[in-house]
Amino acid sequence: MRxxxxxxxxxxxxxxxxxxxxxxxxxCEEMKDEKTRKLIFVNEELKxxxxxxKAGDVPTYVEYGAADIGVVxxxxxxxxxxxxxxxxxxxxxxxxxxxCGPESARELLKHHEMIRVxxxxxxxxxxxxYNKKHQTVEIIKLNGSVELAPIVNLxxxxxxxxxxxxxxxxxxxxxxxxxxxxxxxxxxxxxxMKMENERIMxxxxxxxxxx
Length: 211
Ligand code: PRP
Prior knowledge:
This protein is of the alpha/beta class. It has eight helices and eleven strands. Strand 7 (116-119), helix 4 and strand 8 (138-141) form a beta-alpha-beta unit. The longest helix has 14 residues, at 197-210. Bound molecules: 1-O-pyrophosphono-5-O-phosphono-alpha-D-ribofuranose.
């Protein structure tokens, strides 16, 4: 039997993923050590390998077959637009992709004005404004702390993830429009889905039973 390989998005999602896999008997003790700098973890008994990647790279590892399976947020899946199968909503990591800004920017979204939109997710932002709203905007790609942009007049609005809403509140911003709901998803390489169908379907069914 060959190894089945899982790419997990480093951080909160990986922790939640491991808790979920534990419930169906897939364990990896050495991965729980929060101080470890290791990136690959093996369960020899189950012939399973886990590795930790940056969230944005998980779909890449899965598309190329370096990982059979990935666990990653819907935001990353949409932004990366890779060829893979999204097989399951795992129900954790729930949040929303939203257009946010100061209350005063609400009007700018109503009249197809040319505005600047800052985001860590330029593809999602472009798709929303161009294809859904039919509003021509300038997209500015940022790498984090996106809430800064409208405060310092880099952009009129942002497209970003809102979970509790506290980052927005503490910076005097608000949700202006909702783009889509988000949560952690399981994705599968298209060839692995055929070659390892039995093992992957069992995994999906076991997860469905506990979710
Ligand atoms: C995310 C997101 C928001 C914040 C939303 O940022 O980009 O800034 O969390 O969460 P809240 O609604 O609960 O406040 P993250 O912490 O990942 O850091 P980043 O700013 O570097 O993207």
